[in-house]
């Protein structure tokens, strides 16, 4: 009996070792095309990946992506943004995408906002439109709060021209984290379990937030997973999820910022979103003064820029035209 048990333990140990060291999937041509023109900025000895491309229009747009994905989320919207703007910028937040993913790091929305500020200084641009999604919405809220702080103190700050938010947990009371998020955020338990996430677990967890008719293709899922696996990023997902508690702790600052700002703010919302279900619509309209919102068709979920890129681009450009006219 002891021999069988020893063999079983040995097999499980080998299986776990193979699983934990299984290589990331090869990079697809479309991801390579996205990554290869990108650059890296140093922030406190950490490498931050970003893209900075010229367009055919005017002004600069800064794109802030969501969790657990990356700036690659914008690839379907990128051509439309380059037609509208003269400069299109996107970054991968620390811990995500092609940026460094330090383990045992205390990830914070405040730090991510400081990284954005550093990037804009590096690019020598101080006048931007912000287009954000999910996790990026919260980073944008902190940037707006800093904008207000600077105005009160009569200090110079990033000249934000407008803010457009795609589906995100901007209101903690109306945000419903998925089961996988609630598990990964648990101390110790999340750290251990994050090591055992594989492609199939990831695909099912991420797929939950898409509309029933707009699921990514197998190739798209593998691209998302490959980027998460870059630099063993799946091992820090639990640490990054500290932003869920940060949202609650800083609700007055971040929601208050949206209520107080005089900047043009617009929301593009996909209603088939279990993370931010349709109750979000009326809450937003009740809480935010002069609310501006585009509600997409009912089959569009948490990732409008991937599920309905043309409708999202049209809605965004229409918003920009209203503030420039």
Automatic annotation (TrEMBL):
Pfam families: Abhydrolase_1 (PF00561). Residues 1-16 form the signal peptide. SUPFAM superfamilies: alpha/beta-Hydrolases. It comes from the Eukaryota. Keywords: Signal. The keyword Signal applies. InterPro entries: AB_hydrolase_1, AB_hydrolase_fold, AB_hydrolase_sf, Epox_hydrolase-like. Residues 60-309 form the AB hydrolase-1 domain. PANTHER family: HYDROLASE, PUTATIVE (AFU_ORTHOLOGUE AFUA_2G14860)-RELATED, MONOACYLGLYCEROL LIPASE. This is Mesoderm-specific transcript protein-like. It comes from Limulus polyphemus.
């Amino acid at each position: 009996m002891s021999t069988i048990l020893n063999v079983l333990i040995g097999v499980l140990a080998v299986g776990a070792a193979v699983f934990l060291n299984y290589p990331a999937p090869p990079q697809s041509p479309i991801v390579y095309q996205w990554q290869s023109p990108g650059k890296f900025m140093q922030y406190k000895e950490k490498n931050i990946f970003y893209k900075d491309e010229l367009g055919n229009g005017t002004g600069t747009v800064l794109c802030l992506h969501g969790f657990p994905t990356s700036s690659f989320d914008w690839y379907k919207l990128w051509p439309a943004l380059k037609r509208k703007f003269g400069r299109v910028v996107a970054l991968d937040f620390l811990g995500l995408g092609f940026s460094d993913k330090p383990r045992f790091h205390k990830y914070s929305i405040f730090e991510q906002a400081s990284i954005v500020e550093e990037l804009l200084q590096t690019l020598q641009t101080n006048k931007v439109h912000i287009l954000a999604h999910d996790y990026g919405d919260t980073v944008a809220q902190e940037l707006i709060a800093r904008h207000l702080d600077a105005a009160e103190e009569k200090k110079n700050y990033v000249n934000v021209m407008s803010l457009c938010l795609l589906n995100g947990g901007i209101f903690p009371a109306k945000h419903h984290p998925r089961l996988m998020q609630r598990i990964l955020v648990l101390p110790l338990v999340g750290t251990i379990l994050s090591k055992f996430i594989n492609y199939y677990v990831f695909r099912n967890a991420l797929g939950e937030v898409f509309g029933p008719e707009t699921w990514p293709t197998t190739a798209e899922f593998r691209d998302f997973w490959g980027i998460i696996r870059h630099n063993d990023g799946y091992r820090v997902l639990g640490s990054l999820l500290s932003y869920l508690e940060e949202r609650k702790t800083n609700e007055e600052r971040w929601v208050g910022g949206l209520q107080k700002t005089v900047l043009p703010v617009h929301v593009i919302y996909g209603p088939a979103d279990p993370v931010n279900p349709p109750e979000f619509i009326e809450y937003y309209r009740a809480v935010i003064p002069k609310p501006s919102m585009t509600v997409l068709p009912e089959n569009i979920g948490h990732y409008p820029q991937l599920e309905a890129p043309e409708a999202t681009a049209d809605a965004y450009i229409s918003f920009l035209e209203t503030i420039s006219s």
